[in-house]
Specification:
Elements: H1 85-94, H2 102-125, H3 132-135, H4 138-144, H5 146-173
Helix pairs in contact: 1-2, 4-5
């Protein structure tokens, strides 16, 4: 199974280590040089995680994907679009990786595109034919950014023409 080696314990700031070789390290160590001092009450508990009492948690009614850096769920979260289908499977894989990893973000971008296609199929299955031009905002693009609209149209036309040419040339070879 694909997993990331990062655990929440990896993010605990161990101030016992020596970081003096890092330029600027400890620049905020002097409380007299801290602009939040004395407003902010500092203690060592902050580095262990929560230093405040958590509010009551929202009831978990759908599957919620959360970061490997967070040991638990946030107090509130959205439930309107829970992971489902192929895009949900891609998201579940992505959330096994650290937030600092491409293994997380690239699959999430892919999952968004797959989710869009799944939504189109779902609309068609329900008998609703989507207005692709309107949903892509082509009317607004034409109205407010004609130069980009024409450029995108030319590029799309060239790509479609190239694909059609490749398909036709393969048929002739057979």
């Amino acid at each position: 199974m694909i997993t990331d080696q990062t655990t929440p314990e990896d993010f605990i700031n161990d101030r016992q280590s020596e970081y003096g070789h890092i330029k600027g390290w400890g620049i905020d160590f002097d409380p007299k040089n801290d602009p939040t001092y004395p407003i902010k009450k500092r203690n060592n508990q902050e580095h262990q995680g929560y230093s405040w009492q958590r509010p009551p948690l929202q009831e978990e009614t759908v599957e919620i994907l959360h970061s490997v850096e967070r040991p638990n769920l946030t107090a509130v979260y959205g439930t309107g679009n829970p992971p489902k289908g192929l895009s949900g499977a891609i998201r579940r894989i992505a959330f096994k990786y650290s937030e600092s990893s491409y293994g997380r973000w690239l699959p999430l971008v892919l999952a968004d595109r797959v989710d869009m296609l799944e939504g189109l199929v779902e609309d068609i299955a329900k008998g609703h034919l989507p207005n692709i031009a309107k949903e892509l905002g082509l009317g607004a693009e034409w109205k407010y950014n004609k130069k980009a609209f024409i450029g995108k149209t030319v590029v799309a036309g060239l790509l479609i023409g190239l694909v059609a040419f490749q398909l036709c040339s393969k048929r002739k070879k057979k």
